[in-house]
Design a protein that fits this description.
The complex is a heterodimer of chains A (322) and B (332).
Chain A: E1 6-17, E2 30-41, E3 45-49, H1 56-63, E4 71-76, E5 79-80, H2 86-92, E6 96-99, H3 113-123, H4 129-142, H5 159-171, E7 177-181, H6 189-206, E8 209-214, H7 217-223, E9 226-231, E10 234-240, H8 241-246, H9 251-258, H10 298-302, E11 308-309, E12 315-316
Parallel strand pairs in A: 3-8, 3-9, 6-7, 7-8
Antiparallel strand pairs in A: 1-2, 1-4, 4-5, 9-10, 10-12, 11-12
Helix pairs in contact in A: 3-4, 3-5, 4-5, 5-6
Chain B: H1 3-8, E1 14-25, E2 28-40, E3 45-49, H2 56-63, E4 72-81, E5 84-85, H3 91-97, E6 102-105, H4 109-112, H5 119-131, H6 135-148, H7 154-157, H8 167-179, E7 185-189, H9 197-214, E8 217-222, H10 225-231, E9 234-239, E10 242-248, H11 249-254, H12 259-266, E11 315-318, E12 321-323
Parallel strand pairs in B: 3-8, 3-9, 6-7, 7-8
Antiparallel strand pairs in B: 1-2, 1-4, 4-5, 9-10, 10-12, 11-12
């Protein structure tokens, strides 16, 4: 089952949100994650990129069952974790951890930093008493903080420091997989760089595997080996980082790449050409991007494009390309 | 003709001279803006760039005298608009300037637009107030403005409420509101930060087009160097309430002469193949109530020497390019 050494694999993962309508005619679900499939090898970093509302955060949370998926399969080391009961899932959790986006909301304001970071090891009986205190000290130092910071409360720290606390908490259980949801988006650019360096150092030191979720293409390219582009709940393109940027195939990926400012006043970016804003109609079939796509043809409205390999492990879901 | 040459032939539209805005709190005085000077010329876009807490938003609010008093106060300096001192104006006179000669747009359109009024009403409010048009004429003008900012079906959208529009649409509506009286200067405080990158590109493009058509000046306040590189003509980089570098955009991006500016640029991941660790600025921004002596950046600066603790003088690098660093010649 796991011959390719994949640490994580998802297959047709879906998360639909059903509105609780008083009127039964109101049954159309919001297809936040609409059938995504990908694999991450041990030690690899997969970037999951897309704009707001594309479903990337929901996907990340669904994979760890922080939100229960609607359907699909999630394989961790070859085992479908959706088949596990609560007890079995709990045993697995130390091996897969989450880093949240908002450093101001993801730490319990009433717990001291030491309690926050030490909670996981204590609950899972990985380190207790004096051992736990030592472990917390080591972790805080590892993320660039001071052991004495364990006695302080989150509000006493800046955004970047709080994010370091969140990272310490995530690695406290010696996980193999970390899902990082926009871990640097709320930070100033100079602090972003510090945190990105920290994440990369920890990856090397601890042999971590990352699913790195972000809307920021520069950041994603920097840290990821492979990148999956999401749009309206689906993966529209997936390739090695270098290849995605050199050879973007999906029309949406191209728009996304074109929209990145070049940081060189002499080279202004090309005019973004999206027809109008991201409000495609909830059609049941067909490509969700077709209303904004310059290459849209008849079959785009009726047939859902599948993710196909265009060579060298570069997958695209587009009728025009394939 | 280069921007520098063009500017020297005109008088500035806005002149800020040694502006200092402080906040007097129970814990102490926060010197949010300290001795800030810059100019904005007719028809140009000045980018005011810096990270959180550098004082850029407070600078923008100070220009329109929107600083809450107390605890804030403009303690020093002057702001000259079209040759006239704004600080000396009575509030009644200032009200004629706001929305009319100088307009402002903010970061979060959902919180800046009034949720209980239609966008049409909000656009018309300024027009009726400043331009003495009747309701019918004002409504027509509002629809024209919505069309100008490329909102589809403007004659229908004019009666929409803010919550019925997407983020990008709301920002366009706010731009329409700001431009309804054809101001000479638009202050845009992080106008695209809350927007997706593709929508950001559209909104910036729109701003640049309208600005160019109307010959309007823009002060673009942002932390995003990318945004600045796309549309600004000149840039002022702020840190700890001061301007650290100031000049034409090609100079700031191509030949920066301040280690903070350099640190900022190098913190951004490049799209080219270079990998390995990112160059970072160590440490964090100083506590505004406990600023370092001399140069406010020196504790974090790779070029720091003893003399940096002695003061924070500004040097002229070239014509229009200034840097607050005693080692500017060796930088960067």
């Amino acid at each position: 089952m796991n011959k390719n050494n994949f640490l994580l694999q998802t297959r047709d993962l879906k998360k639909y949100f059903y509105k609780e309508g008083f009127f039964s005619s109101d049954k159309k679900p919001i297809r936040a994650v609409d059938g995504i499939s990908f694999s991450i090898r041990k030690g690899e970093t997969l970037g999951l990129v897309g704009e707001s509302g594309c479903g990337k955060t929901t996907a990340g949370k669904s994979i760890l069952r922080l939100i229960e998926p609607t359907s699909g399969q999630i394989f961790f080391e070859g085992q479908d974790i959706l088949l596990l009961n609560r007890k079995a899932m709990r045993k697995l959790r130390p091996r897969m951890q989450f880093i949240f986006q908002d450093p101001y909301e993801s730490l319990n304001p009433r717990m001291k930093v030491g309690e926050i970071v030490g909670e996981g090891p204590e609950v899972h009986r990985l380190a207790l008493g004096k051992e736990k205190i030592q472990k917390v000290s080591d972790l805080l130092e590892k993320v660039g903080l001071h052991p004495l910071d364990a006695q302080r409360y989150p509000h006493e720290f800046s955004g970047g420091q709080r994010q370091r606390i969140g990272i310490a908490r995530a690695v406290a259980l010696n996980p193999e997989l970390i899902i990082a949801d926009e871990p640097v988006s709320a930070l100033d650019v100079s602090i972003q760089a510090q945190i990105l360096n920290l994440l990369m150092d920890l990856r090397d030191q601890l042999g971590l595997t990352y699913l790195f979720i972000s809307h920021d293409l520069r950041v994603v390219k920097y840290i990821s080996d492979r990148i999956a582009v999401m749009y309206m709940g689906k993966i529209v393109e997936m390739a090695n980082s270098e290849d995605l940027f050199k050879r973007p195939l999906h029309p949406y990926t191209r728009v996304l790449l074109k929209a990145i400012p070049k940081l060189d006043p002499k080279k202004k970016r090309g005019k973004a050409f999206l027809q109008d804003e991201h409000r495609p109609l909830p059609s049941d079939q067909g490509c969700l991007f077709q209303s904004q796509c310059p290459h849209s043809r008849e079959n785009c409205k009726t047939e859902d494009p599948q993710l196909l390999d265009e060579g060298e492990d570069h997958l695209v879901a587009c009728h025009f390309v394939s | 003709m280069s921007q520098i040459k063009q500017n020297s032939l005109k008088n500035p539209l806005l002149e800020v001279r040694s502006l200092s805005t402080h906040f007097f709190t129970e814990e102490g005085v926060v010197r949010a803006v300290e001795n800030v000077s810059f100019e904005i010329y007719p028809g140009e876009i000045l980018g005011l760039v810096g990270e959180s807490g550098c004082g850029k938003s407070v600078t923008g609010l100070s220009l329109l005298k929107l600083i809450p008093i107390p605890p804030g106060r403009i303690v020093n300096g002057d702001i000259l608009f079209d040759g006239r001192s704004l600080l000396n104006l009575e509030e009644k006179e200032m009200e004629k300037v706001r929305g009319n000669d100088i307009a402002m747009i903010f970061q979060e359109p959902m919180t800046s637009l009034n949720p209980v009024f239609t966008i049409g009403d909000q656009i018309m409010e300024a027009i009726i107030l400043h331009q003495r048009l009747n309701k019918t004429e004002a409504r027509k003008r509002a629809i024209d403005m919505l069309d100008r900012v490329k909102i589809p079906s403007p004659e229908k959208r004019v009666d929409s409420y803010p919550h019925q529009l997407s983020g990008g649409m709301r920002q366009r509506a706010m731009i329409a509101m700001a431009l309804s009286c054809q101001p000479k200067l638009l202050i845009a405080d992080e106008p695209t930060t809350a927007l997706d990158v593709t929508i950001q590109a559209q909104v910036l493009q729109l701003l640049k087009e309208i600005q160019s058509e109307m010959g309007m000046s823009v002060m673009l306040i942002t932390h995003d160097l990318g945004v600045v590189s796309e549309i600004a003509d000149r840039v002022a980089v702020m840190y700890a309430g001061r301007i650290f570098e100031y000049g034409p955009i090609e100079a700031i991006f191509g030949e920066m002469r301040n280690p903070y500016t350099r640190g900022l640029m190098h913190s951004i991941p490049q799209l080219t193949e270079r990998k390995g660790r990112l160059n970072t600025i160590p440490g964090q921004v100083p506590d505004p109530m406990n600023l370092p002596v001399g140069c406010k950046f020196h504790p974090r600066c790779y070029m720091m020497i003893e003399d940096c603790k002695k003061g924070e003088p500004i040097f002229q690098v070239d014509g229009d390019h200034f840097s607050r660093c005693i080692r500017w010649k060796e930088c960067c």
